[in-house]
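Please, structure for the following, as tokens.
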Amino acid sequence: MILIADSGSTKTDWVLLNQNQAMTFVQTAGFNPYYSDPSVLKQIISEHLEKKISSERIRKVFFYGSGCSTASKQELVRSILLKFYPGATIEVYHDLLGSARAVLKDEPGIACILGTGSNSCLYDGHEVVENVPSVGYFYGDEGSGTDFGKRLMAHYLRDTLPLDIRNALEEEFKLSFEKVMDAIYNQPLPNAFFGSFSPFIHERSTDPFIKNIIESSFSDFFVHQVSRYTNYKNQKLSFVGSVAYHYRAILEGVAQKFAMTVAHVLPNPVEGLIEYYRANVD
């Protein structure tokens, strides 16, 4: 049996494929080796995963994780998994490769993640060959839910929002200038604060002002990420993530302005990874 994991900072999707390719799905808390203590992953497996998925017959584990971008972080995760699955072959990869394999399979192209954060890569059909650093929410993450919220709050603080949107924000979130400044500069996880406005933005995505925020964020993603790749206009362009999925129509419009076409969009990598491993693992 094969165990596939797609792990982000907030949640991990686990899928078990047996010999007949029947599936067992389990969703647990997320794990990022840069922010989480190793004990967190141990607890996730022992308290949640093992109750639903027996480790006895698992022969291969493929773990794609946020933060698993260096050899040291990959080995850290691998060592934890090995304690629970000692008889299995364990492979740990960055979630960016997982997204590329999920959405492009064995075809070369540009794979992008647009969710809470954003990232992208040029994929040769096997491995990531180019990666423009995302640099996180402070300097980057263009095209993400966090960036939408960041831009919305910039307008709020500068008092450049239409009155109806400003009033709706203050009523729903009990905002004030002081509260927003405190959340950004004094409280932990300002990126989570920015991301908390995603439902508000989605509900109003047809409003011209909100739509412009989304379009400008996507445009900046193409400028700072997509257009940086070799021969980018001739690459197959595909996306993974909730933001890409929910705003596909707007995303496709922005892509056209850069003389590109969106080939595929998946809400999350798991579906695509299942197809990938059905085709590539005996």
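The beta strands are 2-7, 11-17, 23-29, 60-65, 89-94, 109-114, 118-123, 128-130, 237-240, 262-266. Residues 2-87 form a domain with the Nucleotidyltransferase; domain 5 fold (CATH 3.30.420.40).
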